[in-house]
Amino acid sequence: MKRPDPVAVGTIVWLGSEVMFFAGLFAIYFTLRSTSPELWESRTELLNVPFALVNTIILVLSSVTCQMGVFAAERMQPYTVKGNGWKSWGMVPWFWVTFALGAIFVSGQVWEYAQLVSEGMPYGADSYSSAFYLTTGFHAMHVTGGLVAFLFTIGRAYAVKKFTHKEATTAIVVSYYWHFVDVVWIALFAVIYFLK
Predict the structure, then answer these.
(1) Distance of alpha carbon 11 from its chain centroid, rounded?
(2) CA distances (Å), 44 to each of 69, 113, 155, 189, 195, in order?
């Protein structure tokens, strides 16, 4: 009987604690919506839903490219090989694309913050703005942590002489985290931008 990888199991357990952390942030939003509906309505009008939707699509696409990198890692293919189609790409190029998409997403959030501040919604303006920046800011920090993890995974692929199951497991574990961050953002996006 094959035992599960302890690193993968540990990551899943840790992500369970992260679910509880984000559940607390969601609770802030739902409490605010029920106790201050007028504030909620006035502040949500400032949000740029089309821009946030495009930014969300970018993050979701990064999950697709991340999984393509995992498929390559499972084939023990860190680099691009001769051939045609998506199977010729290795883990490293797929993870570079994922890194770029994630960086675009975080940059988009920073741009959105600048727009909201210029429209009169700075961080400490009221309870809604505090909840918005706290929730989306913590998510952006998680995305940034994922970007660092991609750099380490890519660096590790370059550093080893032979790409082994250990390096493939690292790629898989990083993908667990990245997919988690994406799913959390989809839920945040629905609550923040569509719940009127």
Answers:
(1) 15
(2) 37, 14, 41, 12, 9
Global pTM value:
0.91
How far is the CA of 143 from the CAs of 39, 105, 159, in angstroms? 29, 9, 24
Domains in the chain, please, with CATH? 6-194 (1.20.120.80)
Half-sphere exposure of residue 140: CA atoms within 13 angstroms, side-chain side: 18
User: Which stretches of the chain drop beneath a pLDDT of 70?
Assistant: 1, 196
Task: Find, among 150, 127, 148, the residue nearest to 40 by Cα.
Answer: 127
3-state DSSP of the chain: CCCCCHHHHHHHHHHHHHHHHHHHHHHHHHHHHHHCHHHHHHHHCCCCHHHHHHHHHHHHHHHHHHHHHHHHHHCCCCCCCCCCCHHHCCHHHHHHHHHHHHHHHHHHHHHHHHHHHHCCCCCCCCHHHHHHHHHHHHHHHHHHHHHHHHHHHHHHHHHCCCCCHHHHHHHHHHHHHHHHHHHHHHHHHHHHHHCC
Per residue in 132-150, pLDDT tens? 999 999 999 999 999 999 9
Length of the chain, in residues: 196
